[in-house]
Amino acid sequence: MLQLLYYVICVEMIVTLSLVFKTTAPIIIRRLVIVTLDRMKRGRGLVVVKTVVGTLAVVLCSSIYSMFKIQRRRRNTLLEAGGVVVNSTDQVLMSKHILEASLLGFVLFLSLMIDRLHHYIREHQRLRKTIATTKKQSRIFDDGKRALTEEVATLMARVKKLESECEVKGSKVKALEANLEALKNQSEGFLLEYDRILGDNQNLRRQLKSIE
């Protein structure tokens, strides 16, 4: 049991160092550790991890209870004997339980540290992706704004060009209207002249008839 706990502590320390310091382990090992932790927190892996942690917590509580039990038995023995009584078996068991409880507590503490580090690393990666996406969207927005500004400038130039063409055509229309008015006045003068000539013609005809 103690040897297994030492192995577990060594593994957890290596995992913790690989998560805390990027230069401690290669990038491949770090990514492999993160992917393994991701899978352990999904589906059946999470159930297994919770079961193991619960078992270790129960064993820790059992060791602490055994320590209190041995301590109480020693106290009762001292009271009954009325002096100092050294029980080597109790001392060995107490030392064993203290070491076991210390190792179990350290294992649980390192497990909690690994869980929090993994959580913070994932949050940091998520924030980095969010920031990168935001920067990309901002860049796209700036490019769209620049393109829109250029299009607006082009449209303004076309509007000014159309306004100048409209002014030129307006001046031509005014000139044509003036010519049309002059022609109208001229035609009215021709009509008046035609009426006068027609009246003179009729008078000449009446005069000719009277002469005949």
From TrEMBL:
InterPro entries (alphabetical): BAP29/BAP31, BAP29/BAP31_N
Domain BAP29/BAP31 transmembrane residue range list: 3-131
One CC-aspect GO term: endoplasmic reticulum membrane
BP GO annotations: endoplasmic reticulum to Golgi vesicle-mediated transport; intracellular protein transport; protein localization to endoplasmic reticulum exit site
Subcellular location per the Swiss-Prot or TrEMBL entry: Endoplasmic reticulum membrane
Cross-referenced Pfam families: Bap31
Keywords associated with the record: Apoptosis, Coiled coil, Endoplasmic reticulum, ER-Golgi transport, Membrane, Protein transport, Transmembrane, Transmembrane helix, Transport
Segments forming a coiled coil: 145-193
Subcellular location, principal: endoplasmic reticulum
Membrane spanning residue stretches: 6-25, 46-68, 98-118
Membrane topology field: Multi-pass membrane protein
Similarity section: Belongs to the BCAP29/BCAP31 family.
PANTHER family according to UniProt: BCR-ASSOCIATED PROTEIN, BAP, ENDOPLASMIC RETICULUM TRANSMEMBRANE PROTEIN
Chain's role: May play a role in anterograde transport of membrane proteins from the endoplasmic reticulum to the Golgi.
Name of this protein: Endoplasmic reticulum transmembrane protein
UniProt source species: Crotalaria pallida (Smooth rattlebox)
